[in-house]
Amino acid sequence: MDAALERILQVGIRRASLDDIARRAGLNRITIYRRFAGKDNLVEATLARETRRMLAEVTTVVTTTSGVDAQIEAAVLYVLRTTRSHPLVTQLLNVAPDEAMSFYTVRGEEMIRQGVEYIVAVLELTQQRGFIDAYDPRPVAELLARMAHSLLLTPDGGVNFKDPDRAREFVRAAVVPLVKHGIGPKESTDEFSRPTSSSRDTP
């Protein structure tokens, strides 16, 4: 997968042949076919691995930041920044712009799915610890994952996310309240209804 990523960043997905990738990895095509169904499967696995790496880095950002508001802010800003600056976005758009846009739209489903599942797991754990309100985390996770994907495809719009101050203002005003309080009716189970000083800030 390292060899596949390197070749993709050099020439794009379409021109990155299995023969090239095999040579770079010091393998033959047969060995690759023992692990992957074909080139498409290898490419998808490589991109999925990069997504998992980014999510692991988000976890590090959260665990090294104090306070739930600051954790939300730091995590979201990291994702927004990485989404715009990752080589799979910047480099691939440079070497094969049409192919990159097609790939991230047609095959964006897996990226969004991974993001949603990761965010749901984080929100559920945070709810269990009483740091945010009790609500169905899936709609919030869907919105956040799709926002990141939208910025990947269309980085410029109403908010200038290239400006760190503007990006931070947006996250504080829109995303932090969304993550803390959710969308729609809140659950009222005993497990989630106990107020804590850290989870009941004024909206």
UniProtKB/TrEMBL annotation:
Keywords: DNA-binding. Residues 194-203 have a biased composition (Polar residues). Gene3D superfamilies: Homeodomain-like, Tetracycline Repressor, domain 2. Residues 184-203 are annotated as: Disordered. SUPFAM superfamilies: Homeodomain-like, Tetracyclin repressor-like, C-terminal domain. This is HTH tetR-type domain-containing protein. Coiled coil: none annotated. It comes from the Bacteria. The keyword DNA-binding applies. Pfam families: TetR_N. The keyword DNA-binding applies. Residues 17-36 bind DNA. It comes from Nocardia aurantia. One of its GO terms (molecular function) is DNA-binding transcription factor activity. Residues 1-54 form the HTH tetR-type domain.
